[in-house]
Amino acid sequence: MQSPSRDIRLRNCFSMLRHLLADHPSSRPDLAKKTGLSVATVSNLVTELIDLGVVVEAGLEDSGGGRPRMLLGPNTDGGVLIGVDVATTYVKFEAYDLALQVLFRIEEQVDLAEDTPEKLLDHIASGMAAVREVLADREILGLGVSLPGQVDVAGGISVSNPNWNWRDVAFKELLAERLGLDAPIYLDNSLKTVTAGELWFGDGLGVERLAVVVLGTGVGVGLAFDGKLYRGATNSAGEWGHTTIDPNGPVCRCGRRGCIEARIGAPGILRQWAAMGCDREWETQESAIEALAADWKTGEEPAVRTIEAVARDLALGVANFVNLVNPDLVVFTGWVSDALGEALLPELRRRLPDHVLESALGALRIKLDEQSRNMVILGAAALALEGHLNRIKSVGSRARL
Amino acid sequence: MQSPSRDIRLRNCFSMLRHLLADHPSSRPDLAKKTGLSVATVSNLVTELIDLGVVVEAGLEDSGGGRPRMLLGPNTDGGVLIGVDVATTYVKFEAYDLALQVLFRIEEQVDLAEDTPEKLLDHIASGMAAVREVLADREILGLGVSLPGQVDVAGGISVSNPNWNWRDVAFKELLAERLGLDAPIYLDNSLKTVTAGELWFGDGLGVERLAVVVLGTGVGVGLAFDGKLYRGATNSAGEWGHTTIDPNGPVCRCGRRGCIEARIGAPGILRQWAAMGCDREWETQESAIEALAADWKTGEEPAVRTIEAVARDLALGVANFVNLVNPDLVVFTGWVSDALGEALLPELRRRLPDHVLESALGALRIKLDEQSRNMVILGAAALALEGHLNRIKSVGSRARL
């Protein structure tokens, strides 16, 4: 496991970077003030961040009499980070500078039949070739890859996968061979990358007990405690979608009965809408969920009743993990949350007091992710940035995040 | 929040103490070998533990030519720790020496009508007077008190309580005034104290992700991550008893419907047994649960079917938190577990694969607590010992637990 001093370093680095990205150029005393770190700790970290090429000196500031203060900024001309989101029907790439601005973005369409590791490696190699052509003069500092399914992070193994019929594929090794890249590769599943994204670049920074609810085709809840992604014993933590809320509920795609995912994953929501009387058909579940959101807005009865039913199940499921984990903040994200969050959240807020213990409810904030960024990809890149920042040796005190 | 270096210190101290209690006298190099700490760290910690009166020098050992090695042992003649378990019908006291051996034990019976803080304070003061009389010549290092219900640890407040109709009572302050004790008082609820007991003196030491399932009148699951009790935002984590496994299930004493506690807390189990055809009556639910265990052993049909039904609900509930938290070890404790664990666990093991994801199941160990000790009280004393050990300044490397 990672050492506590490494955890503190990462928190301190991300805290400084966040403040520097939000407002730069900044001086060392400014950063100390904003992060709550000592000036000595900030100075040590800044020296190492400059050596690593993450931070650059960006002019001088009059200090009111004394020696002028050096100002600092993110090194936007330095190395780049690549985030990759591998899904069943696409592979998306984003390249970021160290201010986390997107330099280049590309997407490969994947056919559902392309279900072998080799076919996916073809798509990743093809996308990466385009990224490297566009950014030929930039050093790649790290590549973060989000895969669906179960991932063994230390071994770089794609253990299993709900969509493709493969097991225990040494994906990271295959990818490294295929790409011939000097930069390190970080593999994880999308629940973990999106949680890393929220933790470092979303609403999660400084939250001691964070829960990130991802609503999509599947559902899950990413956890981060004490400024650190909580993975569990086998990186399988957060499989909330396969917790039971009703032993007599519908059968889930995992084969079990009564999983919350069978009710509030996109297919489950659309089944409920059909049961409420909607008999239209759509090409994709994405367009169907958008249509449900539109119908709810105009007050169509089946849509309104569907949202009520989904919010009821969502409240049961959210209450179950809130009673267990007692988080400070629950953030809702994912494409279904983007489409239906506005409809679901007020109803969820109304229902939670029926299910959450008073002691946990008082401290609880819930909110929609309002970032316009793709948190799965940004989070994958954040894992690569974590790896890069782990080269820093300084420890120092602990940042107020 | 507690600093990470303090967390590491505590882990190191408890690791050393555990090894010292299991096998003493031991030399510093022995302890370094067993704990995985450097000899320098062990030496620094030992010096401070001797200053604190926790450890004593206990003779010399030939080191094969060089200077003889000093041997160390727990200071059984030093200060004492007191654990108190406050429940609806009793207050139990145990006084421990620093080898965690029970020096004195006493119990006060509490009438159900004695439901005011003042009446309880009377009982605690009465029990403590007896403890102090017997151990008049011993310094009390700390008093750990387990209360039912919701406890604000930092404020020492009994926030709310399922059994007594009180709210926001400054119990720690009242207790300190009443006892006039020099030693610090540590207040927490029984789920947290029992988890602290398992973490430091039970099966939990060295387990990175520990879950302690308490089965009694109520049920809960105490969590400890990374060698530290996980409390949640408001010390309300672990309220597993009030997670929903069936929205059409029976009404719980908390007023909600479908809580797992309503099915597998002692009253729920006895209701299920009655529904299976048992029409006997008992004076206490404890004797009823014992009778159920006896009937199950002799293969009585209603008892066997009740155990099956309870194991089915238990499997759903355990799977729900295992899928979410992905622990390394689940320990079952509490008086219902003591009586029925032997019946429930094989059935639970058989059913878990139907509900727990394969990735989490592979790493999971489940076991009954086989300690003969009262973990609620020992855990309360462990919180007092934590407080005492927190006076130590050394940090050093991290023990292999």
Label this structure with key terms.
Arc Repressor Mutant, subunit A, Nucleotidyltransferase, domain 5, 5-stranded mixed β-sheet, 15 strands, 401 residues, 42% helix, alpha/beta, 3 domains, homodimer, 13 helices
Describe what this molecule looks like in 3D.
The structure is a homodimer of 401-residue chains. With 401 residues, the first copy, chain A, is α/β, with parallel strands linked by helices. Chain A has 3 domains: 4-77, Orthogonal Bundle (Arc Repressor Mutant, subunit A); 80-195 and 377-387, ATPase, nucleotide binding domain (Nucleotidyltransferase, domain 5), CATH 3.30.420; 208-370, ATPase, nucleotide binding domain (Nucleotidyltransferase, domain 5, 2-Layer Sandwich), CATH 3.30.420.40. Chain A has helices at residues 4-22, 28-35, 39-51, 117-134, 171-179, 190-201, 261-264, 266-275, 285-297, 301-325, 335-351, 358-361, 375-389; strands at 26-27, 55-61, 69-74, 80-86, 90-96, 102-109, 140-147, 150-152, 157-160, 185-189, 209-215, 219-225, 228-230, 329-333, 365-368. In chain A, the strands form 4 sheets. In chain A, strands 6-5-4-7-10 form a 5-stranded mixed sheet, sandwiched between helices. The first copy, chain A, has a 5-stranded mixed sheet with strand order 13-12-11-14-15, sandwiched between helices. In chain A, a hairpin with a 4-residue loop joins strand 8 and strand 9 (157-160). The model of chain A has no long low-confidence stretch (mean pLDDT 92). Chains A and B meet through helix 1, strand 12, helix 10 and helix 12 of A and helix 1, strand 12, helix 10 and helix 12 of B. Chains A, B: Keywords: Kinase, Transferase. Chains A, B: This is Sugar kinase of the NBD/HSP70 family, may contain an N-terminal HTH domain. Chains A, B: Belongs to the ROK (NagC/XylR) family. Chains A, B: It comes from Glycomyces harbinensis.
